[in-house]
Amino acid sequence: MSENKRIGFVGLGNMGYHMASNLAKAGHPLAIYDIRKEVVDSFPGEDVLRLSSPKEVADQTEIVLVSLPTPQVVKSVVLDENGLIYGSAIRVYIDLSTSGRTVSKEVGKALAESGIKTLDSPVSGGVPGAEKATLSIMVAGEKEIFDQCKHILDSIGNKDKVLHVGEEIGQAQALKVINNLLSSSALAITSEAMVLGVKAGLDPNVMIDVLNVSSGRNSATEDKFKKSIINRKFDYGFQTALAYKDIKLCLDLAADLEVPMFLGNNMEHFWKFAMTQGAGDKDYTTIIKYFEEWAGVEVKEQ
Ligand code: NAD
Predict the structure, then answer these.
(1) Could you read off the pLDDT of 193-237 as tens digits, one per residue?
(2) What 3-state DSSP class applies to 253?
(3) Residue with CA nearest ligand 1 atom 25
(4) What sections of the chain are H helices per DSSP?
(5) For the CA atoms of 38, 39, 42, 46, what is the dihedral angle to 10 degrees?
(6) CA-CA to 7 of 20 to 30 Å: which in 56, 150, 165, 206?
């Protein structure tokens, strides 16, 4: 698998668009597909093959990466009529989506039966990480295939954070949904706490500065509050519906393994409540607005 062979990419959304752009910048010619034809048509580069189905991508390329919204979409892009599995050239499938352990294993098994290797490779670091190619990428699958594809993953992530986590497909998905339960919980509990602080008369910027040099710091204090919440931009780039999907996938994993999740279940309930309020298509940093409404304050520049 030479470094300059054309690479396939399916799913040019908030994350995928930047990841595909970084692959192109690193010198990999691309073959791309997304159901949104306008995004495919406007993707820059003279050398890009703009195709009309996952199968067409898999007919043209040995290695295909996907970044898709839900496990159901991942399954359909791989296994449905005109799916990747029917491509004549594909040898390695790399799933960068958060698609959960169950679907990852199911899809991996079907592909293996067709002689196609899978790397279960979810990413972390959000849209800023995708844009700057500083993502962390947790990868499960055969170590030999990981080693062969690492140079590709290194062009979309930080090479020191592209990590092999196990041989079994689905192990990286398990780790990723655990990570996202933690990061969405951090965002929710930090929102609750920041609202309390503002109600107590504190300046939110001062709070964040102090928390970030104290033991309460977390991914929400270090990243999301100043970037997207205190300035009221709510533009972090991750939809509430996707955050909820990931928490649910984590709780499904716990149910499969019969592990009690007292706190995780509360988180799932809280994010489900947000979904019932129509928050699904909003940025997940807007979660703070419920706490603000209940307390009658806003966490904003003072
Ligand atoms: P998104 O909804 O912005 O992008 C998904 C893309 O897939 C869209 O361009 C959409 O048109 C395309 N798509 C949908 N159905 C399709 C189909 N049948 N065939 C081809 N293309 C199809 O989502 P995103 O935020 O880019 O996230 C992608 C994945 O990465 C998700 O699994 C998400 O959980 C995960 N993720 C997201 C973030 C983030 O901060 N946004 C961070 C880490 C991981």
Answers:
(1) 999 999 999 999 999 999 999 999 999 999 999 999 999 999 999
(2) helix
(3) 14
(4) 16-25, 37-42, 54-60, 71-79, 101-113, 126-132, 143-154, 171-199, 204-211, 219, 240-256, 262-276, 288-295
(5) -120
(6) 165
pLDDT in tens, 34-78: 999 999 999 999 999 999 999 999 999 999 999 999 999 999 999
Residue 11 Cβ < 6 Å to ligand 1: yes
Q: How far apart are CA 27 and CA 278, in angstroms?
A: 42
Over the chain (302 residues), the average pLDDT of each successive run of 10 is 79 97 97 98 96 98 97 98 98 97 98 98 94 98 98 97 98 98 98 98 98 98 97 96 97 97 97 98 98 98 95
Domains of the chain: 7-168 (3.40.50.720), 174-295 (1.10.1040.10)
C-beta pairs of 125-131 under 8 Å, 24+ apart in sequence: 125/157, 126/223, 126/236, 126/237, 126/238, 127/14, 127/15, 127/18, 127/236, 127/237, 127/238, 128/227, 128/237, 129/157, 130/14, 130/15, 130/16, 130/18, 130/19, 130/22, 130/156, 131/18
**Cα of 70 from ligand 1 centre, angstroms:** 7
pTM: 0.94
Report the separation in Å between the CA atom of 168 and the middle of ligand 1, taken as the mean of its atom positions: 24
* Backbone φ/ψ region at 2: left (φ over 0), alpha (ψ -120 to 50), beta: beta
φ/ψ (deg, to 5) at 101: -70, -40
Give the strand pairing for 135-140 and 123-124: antiparallel
- Give the position, in ligand 1's atom list, of the atom nearest the Cα of 126: 40
Nearest CA to ligand 1 atom 42: 126
The answer to whether 176 is a known catalytic residue is yes
